[in-house]
Design brief:
The complex is a heterodimer of chains A (41) and B (212). With 41 residues, chain A is mostly helical. Chain A has one helix spanning 8-25, and one strand at residues 36-37. A 7-stranded parallel β-sheet of chain B has the order 3-2-1-4-5-6-13, sandwiched between helices. Chain B has a 7-stranded mixed β-sheet with strand order 8-9-10-7-11-12-14. In chain B, α1 crosses α4 (168-177) and α3 (87-96) crosses α5 (194-203). Classes of the chains: A mainly alpha (41), B alpha/beta (212).
Chain lengths: 41, 212
């Protein structure tokens, strides 16, 4: 029985979702922020 | 000034300790029945200028005693002198003082772990966490569950980021206690008196910082 091929759009959507998930979970270092104590004003 | 502590949990006890060391307060008493090693216990709130309590039970208790309440919950009423005296209120007060606030956010270990829609970077040791868009007192605020014991309040304005970071339970207690500074005889949220509220909160030990 021949296998049904996935639509290119479905393949693209899966690839984009995987890339977004990978980006969200990445542990990319961020530049340190320079916090200084300040009084309310 | 005499403050009555409603027995409503750990946050109000922490607030009572902050108030006991606060200049304008002469005495903090616990409204019983209760036992306390730190405060005198009274059967009634007679002679109290304000009550302090947290959570949903506090307004009903204040109504019963007929003394205005400093509260960490949401919404004004006759028996509530000040509301929003919580880390969320601190964040909203920070935002009120910024000329063009673009984001108000709170991360706290006591907030529920819900569905998040994006991430926001808080100062360390909270760091970048997922937030969900919420509202408090009709104002937008992004809410996050802190991954550790620390809490952070953040307001991002046009020219700077302003934050308060501290141990979550300590912050909640001070945020409630500092609500006293917003009392004016009516019923209003802490951010309506943002400057005296934040000044009192920093006097009680919270540290405010900015990043440009």
């Amino acid at each position: 029985m021949p296998m049904k091929r996935l639509s290119p759009l479905v393949v693209l959507a899966v690839a984009v979702a995987a890339a977004v998930a990978l980006f969200r979970n990445s542990d990319t270092p961020e530049p340190a922020e320079d916090w200084k104590p300040v009084q309310p004003s | 000034m005499r403050i009555g502590l409603l027995v409503t949990g750990d946050i109000s006890v922490r607030a009572a300790h902050a108030l006991q060391a606060h200049g304008p307060v002469d005495e903090v008493v616990v409204i019983g029945p209760a036992t306390s090693k730190s405060f005198n216990v009274m059967e009634s709130a007679d002679g109290c200028d304000f009550l302090v309590g947290s959570g949903s039970a506090a307004p009903g208790m204040a109504r019963k005693h007929g003394v205005p309440l400093i509260w960490d919950g949401e919404g004004g009423a006759d028996e509530i002198a000040v509301w929003g005296a919580s880390p969320v209120g601190v964040a909203l007060a920070l935002a009120v003082r910024e000329p063009d606030p673009r984001l108000v956010a709170v991360a706290h270990p006591g907030l529920a772990e819900g569905q998040t829609t994006r991430t926001t970077r808080f100062p360390d040791p909270v760091g970048r966490v997922g937030v969900s868009d919420g509202q408090f007192g009709g104002r937008p605020v992004a809410l996050a569950h802190s991954p550790n014991e620390f809490a952070a309040c953040l307001a991002i304005g046009a020219g700077r980021r302003v934050a308060v970071v501290d141990q979550g339970a300590f912050m909640s207690g001070v945020a409630l206690a500092a609500g006293l500074a917003a009392a004016n005889g009516g019923s209003r949220p802490v951010w309506d008196a943002a400057l005296p509220y934040l000044e009192t909160a920093t006097d009680m030990g919270l540290v405010m910082a900015e990043s440009r």
